[in-house]
Amino acid sequence: MTKLRQLALAAGFVLMTGASAFAQDAVQGKKIFEGNCTACHSIDADVVGPALKDVHERRGDEWLHKFIKNSQELIASGDADAVAVYEKFNKMPMPAFGGSLTDDDINHVIAYIKEASAAAPAVVVEPAATETAEATPAATPQEVAFMDLPPIVHFIYGLVGLIILLIVVVLVMLFRVIVPMMGDSLKDEEFQSTFSGRVYALLSGDATVMTGKAKDVIHSNHDFDGIQEYDNDLPPWWKYMFYVTIVFAVGYMLHYHVFRTGALQTEEYEMEMAQAALIAAQNVEDPNAVTNFEVLTDASALESGKAIYLQNCAACHGQAGEGTVGPNLTDEYWLHGGDVNDIFKTVKFGVPSKGMVPWQGKLTKDQMLEVSSYILSLQGSNPPNAKEAQGEKE
């Protein structure tokens, strides 16, 4: 009994100390994870990189060590899992942490992932979105049967139909009464040349008013290998349309180029863009909204911006802004604009297609302005191992 009691106490001690050590590893791992990984990873959702829930079960601790230390080396070796992750997430390389994290640090991170995975809800794996994926169709309005419409609508439809029917009946009766009264005068050449005569001819099935009359007059000296040409006018309908285009062209020239009372395409575009800017300015969540922030230069704001940068941006842009996965932030070249307002919008809304996550909702407006100002303060610092220039010079 004494030996059993000693064994039980020893087992309890081991369990207690082991649990305590695991908890301590997870606490330390959470700090390391938040400082290096949260910019690109979440436990239960894909961000720039994959969701990490239960990744230790799918890959194993040894594989995670290799991938965290140098993912590109593992990809270059042809590891199927590493290549699959790289391909799925738009070939965005993960920074190599072999020089900044020790094996113990990585163990702490894995311990945190294990603990967070146990507490996180199940991840729903969705197929990767592609450029050809169709957008979710908008809900179509529900159709209403005609008989379900209000009685007043039925009455209006019936009244309009009755009026149209009465107009047709009256016109037919007038035509049937007036035409016999005119008798042979309908065939007079003088009447047929009038507007009324032409309308009557059309109604009677004579289309010469539109097509013109054929003349049996042959052009003199227009004989080509026995082929002769008649001297027929152009169809009246063609000539009328030609006359209309001449009148329209004169009016167009006067309206747009002489009196300048109309806006040409360039002017219309500029006016529409100005209107769009005014509308966008009313919505602060619109990436096109006009902002007029000024660069912060006081030491406290820049120090705060540096702390935010090191915690959230350094994993992809380097500790000194030299660029790793993301571009170099210390040169004169910018992919999305180098003004403080451009940088603020890039930080706020991100560039998901290139792996830059949006920070709105995670950072306040003041924090985003502080980190944007700090990034501009890095200009010309020339850190070692700086990434080659990308974008346009400003």
UniProtKB/TrEMBL annotation:
In terms of PANTHER family, this protein maps to: CBB3-TYPE CYTOCHROME C OXIDASE SUBUNIT FIXP
Naturally occurring in which organism (per UniProt): Pontibacter indicus
> What SUPFAM superfamilies does the record tag this protein with?
Cytochrome c
Q: Which Pfam families does the record associate with it?
A: Cytochrom_C (PF00034), Cytochrome_CBB3 (PF13442), FixP_N (PF14715)
Q: Which residues form a coiled coil?
A: none
Asked whether the keyword ATP-binding is assigned, the reply is no
Q: What is this protein called?
A: Cytochrome c oxidase cbb3-type subunit 3
User: What is the annotated signal peptide range for this record?
Assistant: 1-23
Keyword terms of this UniProt record: Electron transport, Heme, Iron, Membrane, Metal-binding, Signal, Transmembrane, Transmembrane helix, Transport
GO MF terms, alphabetically ordered: electron transfer activity; heme binding; iron ion binding
Matches recorded under PROSITE patterns: CYTC
The membrane spanning regions, by residue number, are 155-179, 240-259
